[in-house]
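Annex B. Sample input.
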Amino acid sequence: MRILVVNGPNLNLLGERRPEIYGTATLAELEQSCRQWGAALGLEVETFQSNHEGAIIDRLHDARGRCDAVVLNPGALAHYSYALHDAVEAIALPVVEVHLSDITAREEWRARSVVSPACAATITGRGADGYREALALLARRDQASAR
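Annex B, continued. Sample output.
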């Protein structure tokens, strides 16, 4: 099973930007962890990060026929990007939305994700472990559908 892990705007600054909220691991370290966690679950993990909404949507479209599922941290795009919501719906792949912080416990404008309704699941507030949980969820889902 091939999984695309997509990280949105500002996640390239992980480890530097607000470490008290987002942690001290860098994006490169997070991506490496995702590949290792995926390998332990029998998954092949491909990673991508962009600060540009259109590039993220293009990469999601490109995942059709190449990947079996997506782990998506849309960053702040989660709170207003109906285009990203529509892209998640359009690709017809299971997508698990992940947020490092608990978006419901932060600023009022962050409390709601417009992307979540298009996703198979949403994991928030678990830091990098949220990515591990998303990968495990997708692996279990794949195993269940194989039965």
